[in-house]
Amino acid sequence: MGRKTMKAQSHRWTRAIMGLVVIFALAAGLSACNQGQSQQAPGDRPPPEVGVAIIEARTVELTNELPGRTSAYRMAEIRPQVNGIIEKRLFEEGSDVKAGQLLYQIDPDPFQAALDSALASLGRTEANLPSVRSRAERYKELLEDRAVSQQDYDDAAAAVRQVEADIKYWEAQVSSARINLAYTRVTAPISGRIGRSSVTVGAMVTAYQPVALATIQQLDPIYVDVAQSSAELLGLKRSQESGRLTADVEEGKKVRILLEDGTPYEHEGVLQFRDVTVNPATGSYILRIVVPNPELMLMPGMYVQAVISEGMVPDAIMAPQQAVTRNPKGEAVALVVNDNNVVEQRILQVERAIGNEWLVRKGLVPGDRAIVEGRLNVRPGAAVRVAVLDEQPPMAEQTKDGGM
Q1: Domain 49-62+314-388, what fold?
Q2: 53: three-class secondary structure by DSSP
Q3: Which class is 108-183 in CATH?
Q4: Pair 400, 65: CB distance under 8 Å
Q5: pLDDT at 404 over 50
Q6: pTM for the complete prediction?
Q7: Does pLDDT of 294 surpass 80?
Q8: Architecture of the domain whose range is 63-72+217-312
Q9: Three-state secondary structure call for residue 364
Q10: DSSP code string of 280-349
Q11: Distances in whole angstroms, Cα of residue 35 to Cα of each of 23, 46, 47, 380
């Protein structure tokens, strides 16, 4: 009985040991398989795919958007030139008036009376002239015969000169009275749109009073005054002198206008002049633009943007904004795929934004493949697969704050 028991225990220990051996063998096999798979994974995984844009050189127009305000092409403040009572107002507020149109009628009766009085005095003086002139002529003949004294002749001649002077005086009075009578008719000096009236019928007005009766503004065409930095002007001149920027004189005078809501204005303006004085407080000077305004859409005081052409840049290098970022130093950088499909990092010098692209001075050349999609999945030195994007970013106009 004892031998059988010992043999049974021996068989159990043998089976247990064999089971452990099998388990360890299986575990070792699985570990070897996992190591083999891990060693083969890097070689089997394909390189990441990136979307690139082909950098090209093309001619680009540089523009500058400058904020400005509109102002009337011509403006006239209507003021009376004589004292009196407003008898009539002969226009509708907010209407269009023509030059020479009667606007106000001041009571003319006192001025008509002054004119009549001056005419009467002139007539009376002129009536005295023939008699005193004939007397002087007779005294001159009698003086030769010594029938009158020299003093009598001198008095007669002086009387003639006195009457002639009185005639000139009253002629001047008549002219002045006529002018004052004409001033009772207050007319429009220019054509345009008239605003509200500051007086009503029956109001007393005085000559050249500080408060205008009304204001007329000519709104077609209309001025747009914008301010430009003098530093920008110096940079523009240097670029033109170096040949980097070419300017067409006639095209450079054309200006596009953007309304307050950003929509383009229908009519194109013309640059009239650049001011010759820089404001020392702001470091800027004024550009004046003449803009057609037949529909009277633009009103004085409106805020607008003037898109002014600076010139054309031949062979400009343009990079999509998606391809350009900033490194910790603040430098503009781009990732480029070289001929071996390996990623390289380029340090760029960018000048300004034009629409959704950057104008690049240095760092890129025509034919470079700049990464615009998938750049977060790659690093410089990594191998990649390249997919060229069919759609190139469209060029839009440059904005004032387009610098990077």
Answers
A1: 2.40.420
A2: strand
A3: mainly alpha
A4: yes
A5: no
A6: 0.67
A7: yes
A8: Beta Barrel (2.40)
A9: coil
A10: TTTTEEEEEEEE--TT----TT-EEEEEEEEEEEEEEEEEEGGGEEE-TTS-EEEEEE-TTSBEEEEEEE
A11: 18, 20, 22, 29
